């Protein structure tokens, strides 16, 4: 589905143009065309391939989706794939955007994602000084917008982790903790697969040998790279903390169990003593003088209570009860 | 066993040719010969070695099999070894294909694998525009076909992992989980040994200094490289998740055991109290007035039931029962 | 909030100057201006941007804060962000300082931090020989001062770790240990995120290709780099030790539990024997000759005590009691 | 002890020569001398040092043994140290071979190892075409022979691992498994210390800048390098599997213990109920009407058996018995 | 404290000289001065700084100590810091030596260490051929001497590890093992912090671009580098083994506990059966015919003994007792 097809010159919007006319505009000096597609059909992609002379492998990738985030050069054209993760029903689902950038065109193809990039276009049109840098700046603006969407997801991971951490030493929370930690780990892994490969290649857009189309906006791409590095570092931190938390959680379960075992065994011991004593006076020997004493029973009860009491006191002192 | 031996010119099939005539065709301009062998005998390999002037070490590797996946240059000839993993009786078994590529020939030697590459040849012959690129493109087509076979194996690993994950917090599934996780880990390790070394060397076929025979198809090899990177990343993710899952599984066992211990100990405590009380009234003291009461027995039963009830209620409230 | 704005020439302070005059002083030869801001307002930053011709992305970073530590070049201007961690209420909180350095100016913007850099300025002014090196030396002095603040935090981590280590084999300290280890790990992680990214980039300021403004002070920057490497190495050591300590702690809990289980089970066994024996003599068979013996009861008690004693002795010998 | 001292020309053996004449043969064109020593004395080494003008540090290393595997260049002479691990009494013991290679000589010094390299010499002499490449090819042949000796050790590790894996989920095998896994880990570590440093440096002998003496046999050294990479990869796989197996083993112990605990506790509960009921009817209240019933006893036994039976049935249904 | 101050020419000692004359000797051709200080005062260091024109940052580092091992170039002067670990009261304590090396001088400053370097000087003076290489060779000799001191420490770690390993599967040694493993880990970590940073930088002294002062002794520095690599590899091996041993130790504790639990529970079950049976015959029903049998009691005892015996036999057969 075509969303926009606009021609720009010297940083200013010239006109919404029909797709068929693209070819003509591409030939004008200092002019570039910015096309946005969404869930593009095969026909649309084929048309774009012809208009912009795109490489078949890149178009194939844009068509099939489910690519790794990457930045590839096909001659003068840059091909960028980024993930668009969104929280849906508590799961982290991943749309995708494929961007083709040449000296005088930008083509973005968004797949399986709710949120569009209209805001990016508006912001760019409000800043003609920047837009003058050409297609490279548009690529930056799109990448920046995509990366900005990773931050709230990162924040939600960090918030969840903090919640779990605040309960990690709570008694009886172990099972709930471990489930949430595992779930968090999975989401962190998804976000990492979104960010890490992009970080790896984003360095190619600034410093050293840079694709021609990006050379005028290098500082901006470094900024995107830096944001990705920040997110990636934070994810690594989260993953590391989760690993420790799972270990600590296991320790806490073991400690708790150890305490429960002690407590129950202590009570069992108290009753075992009582039962043993009662059993002794329940024996049927004829010659058991204390059985005939007037206060024998009371003394027996006292003895049992006393033994139990002593044990209770000692266990408590040892911190078991 | 010889499967095919065909000569191509300008991307089009010229003729099936006998092995003896290869030498003549190799001298024709813009012409290349594509030979496919399967479980080749020593004689066949020796013949090929002479026809194409192959290096003895490479031929040795092709003969013995069980190589690490690799890409090696012997002068102008490229020697590629790839694994062909197949699921057989629930085990991941690995065949192998060795490919020799020169400026004007391709020789593939398949060992210990059921699935052939006839489809690759057919597809190549249908796209003469691509095949015009020469032997390099055939190498790409073969590598692409091999790598495409890794995806269903990866998918089966991911499906299995998801199945295990959906049961990882189920009560009593620990043993079954741990066995399946261990088995999954082994299969993931096999696939990794298939993919990782290939990924390592596949980067040599695009960008930077590239073997002459591949230089015209660089973008295609980058695509293969990218697929391998995707698979490798996914395997790393699976391995990481398995490690966490094993840890979590251990935690769950410990938590479950802790709960069972609590529950049983609670019941034991309830019966221990009953036994102790019954033991007390079973003592043989003469002066135990309550024994003579009319409702003594009922009161005793009530006391026992009451004590048991109080304990039961408290344990339940504490979440132990 | 403006803190200072001073012009220097040949390593000596010329005058406190008003912000508006900066432009004039920048044009004088061998002269540089050093401005310090604290929690700068947007207006102040905009003014500085114009005076020193700063890049908008760097200014944006200084405004928003919460950056990763980094060193970036914008043309001839160097932009450095460092964290200023401070212990507040037992938590490690992080302020930030952003420093812009050009051939003839230094601008530091401190955010969310109590401690200032007046001491640095004073020290610099006392050493005109060094200050003669220009803006680069000021950058060194500021970085050195920031890095020096990391050492006491590192020391407190090491002290805490030593305290925990001295108790790690103490009986019953497991829960407390694990909590403290977890807390320590978190603080070490915070410090690591402060140090590691800075270490990564600090190498750019000495050896190899160095920004022009730093080239005269390379040895000094290497010294800062070396300090960062030392801190980073120490943090890695702490983290490694914490990981081992958590594992060891789990082992200790398990060992302790094992000992408690043995001890309690041993006592339980002793009383179970007593109860079983008492139960036997409590049976109501008519023909139980020992019940009528004169010393039957005493013998029974002796038998019970003897059985218990033997068990006690054996358990003690086995090290269980 | 001198084993051989032979001169070769153009790939063919000329003569066994006395050590004293080496000097003369070294001056002949296209001629090289191949000397093999075993457990060399200081005198022998000193003599060789003079004949071949070896560097004192290399000679020292050859004398003392216990070196890390390494490849070092001393001027035009290459110095190679490799380990010769052998299974002796179930332990992996390591001999060593030090090889000096110059343009026209090869000197191998074998220490503390049973197996010699006579086979290598014979093979070389049978292939004069290869031997024509000179001293470099002899180095290759020796390295290839050494590396080939690593494979059976690797195989024995893999076989042992498979044996353990086949029993890892067996009930009651935990202790035996853990001992064998630990032992396997040790042997894998020994082999790794033999292979990994060699792999690290073997890459220097092919591709890029290569020592002159090896330049004609590069493809052969790449083959050795590839073999080492294969072994190293396999060891890494084994180590990784062992780590997982140890973890899994711990899980299995915990699961087994959990099951035993459940089973025993279930039986304990059944008998506790019986004891409690018997205790109640063993109380001495006067007014316990059921005691006087004709079938009271039978009913009591039935009640006890019934309670035990119900519990048994429920525990079995819950999978505890 | 000044230890020595000696001038050398062409590898031979000329004279012990007073510190004040250093300046003069430095100007003579082919002459170098070797000064050794111990726990130098600020005055001594200041004097040396002037005599040899040392960089203030390096002098500061030598004064304060507690540096990371490192090798730094200040112009033509090389500054080397190495740790001197010594066993004191069972703890691994670390002294330090800082070495300044220029074209015609060596200055070593030893701090907080008992063992001196007189032996090094003596050995050097006995080998004028080597000493002719100049200050670089002295640096090598000092580094070699320092690194040689690491070996006995490494040996003691390995011996301790072997001792622990020989007991790791012993029953009841778990607590002692875990304490010793933890202690060993700490000492290994100390040694690693001594060796690893030095290894990292020692590579700069041979191959590639080498400081002028070391260029004539490259092969010697490579030897030191190789020693460091060997030590570092061994430490990594120790650390890896410790990690596994801790894990295995935990498994062993769990296995032992599991066995103890089984054994005790088995005995408990035997007595529980006895108690239950005795309880049944202790019930007070009037109509319990067996109570009146002549051999009822004997039969009861036999039944109890029989039940206990059967259980005992079954538990033993199952390997629990």
Automatic annotation (TrEMBL), chains A, B, C, D, E:
Catalytic activity: Mg(2+)(in) = Mg(2+)(out)
PANTHER family, alphabetized: CORA FAMILY METAL ION TRANSPORTER (EUROFUNG)
Topology in membrane: Multi-pass membrane protein
Subcellular location: Cell membrane; Membrane
Protein family according to the UniProt entry: Belongs to the CorA metal ion transporter (MIT) (TC 1.A.35) family.
A Gene Ontology cellular-component term: plasma membrane
Protein name: Magnesium transport protein CorA
Predominant location category: membrane
TM region(s), chain numbering: 264-283, 295-315
Primary role: Mediates influx of magnesium ions. Alternates between open and closed states. Activated by low cytoplasmic Mg(2+) levels. Inactive when cytoplasmic Mg(2+) levels are high.
Record key words, sorted: Cell membrane, Ion transport, Magnesium, Membrane, Transmembrane, Transmembrane helix, Transport
Species of origin: Rubrivivax rivuli
InterPro entries (alphabetical): CorA_cytoplasmic_dom (IPR045861), CorA_TM1_TM2 (IPR045863), Mg/Co-transport_prot_CorA (IPR004488), MgTranspt_CorA/ZnTranspt_ZntB (IPR002523)
Single GO MF annotation: magnesium ion binding
């Amino acid at each position: 589905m075509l969303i926009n097809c606009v021609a720009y010159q010297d940083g200013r919007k010239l006109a919404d143009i029909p797709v068929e006319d693209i070819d003509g505009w591409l030939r004008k000096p200092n002019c570039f065309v910015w096309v946005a597609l969404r869930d593009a059909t095969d026909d649309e992609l084929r048309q774009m391939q012809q208009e912009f002379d795109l490489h078949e492998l890149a178009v194939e990738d844009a068509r099939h989706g489910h690519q790794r985030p990457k930045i590839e050069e096909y001659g003068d054209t840059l091909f960028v794939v980024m993930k668009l993760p969104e929280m849906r029903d508590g799961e982290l689902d991943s749309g995708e955007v494929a961007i083709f950038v040449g000296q005088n065109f930008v083509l973005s193809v968004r797949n399986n994602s709710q949120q569009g990039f209209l805001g990016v276009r508006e912001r760019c049109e409000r800043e003609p000084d920047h837009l003058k840098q050409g297609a490279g700046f548009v690529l930056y603006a799109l990448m920046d917008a995509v990366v900005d969407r990773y931050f709230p997801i990162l924040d939600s991971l960090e918030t969840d982790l903090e919640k779990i951490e605040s309960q990690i030493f709570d008694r009886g929370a172990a099972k709930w903790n471990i489930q949430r930690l595992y779930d968090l780990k999975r989401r962190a892994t998804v976000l990492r697969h979104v960010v890490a490969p992009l970080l790896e290649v984003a360095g190619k857009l600034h410093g050293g040998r840079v694709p021609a189309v990006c050379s005028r906006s290098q500082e901006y791409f470094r900024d995107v790279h830096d944001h990705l590095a920040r997110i990636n570092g934070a994810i690594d931190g989260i993953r590391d903390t989760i690993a420790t938390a799972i270990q600590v959680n296991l320790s806490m379960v073991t400690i708790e169990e150890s305490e429960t075992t002690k407590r129950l065994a202590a009570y069992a011991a108290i009753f075992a003593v009582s039962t043993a004593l009662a059993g002794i006076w329940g024996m049927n020997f004829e010659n058991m003088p204390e059985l005939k004493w007037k206060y024998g029973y009371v003394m027996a009860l006292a003895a049992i209570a006393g033994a139990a009491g002593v044990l209770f006191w000692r266990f408590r002192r040892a911190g078991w009860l």
